[in-house]
Amino acid sequence: MRTRKNLAPASVIGPPTIMTERTTARTTAIIDGNEAVASVAHRTNEVIAIYPITPASPMGELADAWSVEHRRNIWGMVPDVVQMQSEGGAAGAVHGSLQAGALTTTFTASQGLLLMLPDMYKIAGELTATCMHVAARTIATHALSIFNDHSDVMGARQTGFAMLASASVQEAHDFACIGQAATLASRVPFLHFLDGFRTSHELARIELLSNDDLRFMISDDLVKAHRRRALTPDRPVIRGTAQNPDTFFQAREACNGFYLNCPETVQLLMDRFGERTGRQYRLFEFFGHPRAERVIVLMGSSAETARETVGLLKDRGEKVGVLKVSLFRPFSVHDFAASLPPTVRSIAVLDRTKEPGAVGDPLYLDILAALREAYSQKLTSFDKEPLVIGGRYGLSSKEFSPATVKAVFDELAAATPKNHFTVGIVDDVTHTSLSVEPESDDLESADVMEAVFFGLGSDGTVGANKNTIKIIGEQTDQHAQGYFVYDSRKSGAVTVSHLRFGPRPIRAPYLISKANFLACHQFELLDKLDVLELAAPGAVFLLNAPYSPADIWDQLPFEVQSAIIDKALKFYAIDAYRVAKEIGLGVRINTIMQTCFFDISGVLPREKAIGSIKDSIQASYGKRGTVVVRQNFSAVDRALENLRAVKVPHHATATRNRAPVVAAEAPDFVQKVTAVMLANKGDLLPVSAFPVDGTWPLGTSRWEKRNLASEIPIWDPDICIQCNQCALVCPHAAIRAKVYDPKGLSNAPSGFQSTAYRNPEMDGLAYTIQVAPEDCTGCHLCVEVCPAKDKSRPRHKAIDMEPQRPLREREIENYSFFLELPECDRTSFQRLDAKESQFFEPLFECSGACAGCGETPYIKLLTQLFGDRALIANATGCSSIYGGNLPTTPYTTNSAGRGPAWSNSLFEDNAEFGFGFRLAVDAHQSQARELLRRLGPKLGDPLVKELLEAEQLNETGILAQRERVVSLRSKLGETDRLEARWLEALADYLVKKSVWLVGGDGWAYDIGYGGLDHVLSQRRDVNVLVLDTEVYSNTGGQQSKATPIGATAKFAMSGKEVPKKDLGMEAMSYGHVYVARVAFGAKVNQVVQAFTEADSYPGPSLIIAYSPCIAHGYDLRHGVDQQKLAVRSGAWPLYRFDPRRIKESEAPLRLDSSEPRCPLKSYMQNEARFRMVEKLDPKRFEHLQERAQREVHQRFAVYQQLATLTVPRGPEGKKDSEAREQTKEAK
Amino acid sequence: MDLSTQYLGFELPHPFMPGASPLTNDLDQVKRLEDAGAAMIVMPSLFEEQISAEQLATHHWFEGPAESFAEAQTYLPSPSDFALGPEAYLERLQEIKNIVSVPVIASLNGATPGGWLEYAKLLEEAGADALELNTYQLATDPEDSSQVLEERILDIIRTVVSQTEIPTCIKLSPYYTSLSHFAQRLDEAGVAGMALFNRFYQPDIDVEELEATPVLRLSDSSELLLRIRWLAILSGRVQASLAITGGVHTAVDAIKAVMAGANGVQVVSALLQKGPGHLRTLREEMIQWMEEHDYESLEQMRGSMNLLGCPDPKAFERANYLRVLQSWKGFL
Question: Between A and B, how many CB-CB pairs are < 8 A?
Answer without folding.
Answer: 150
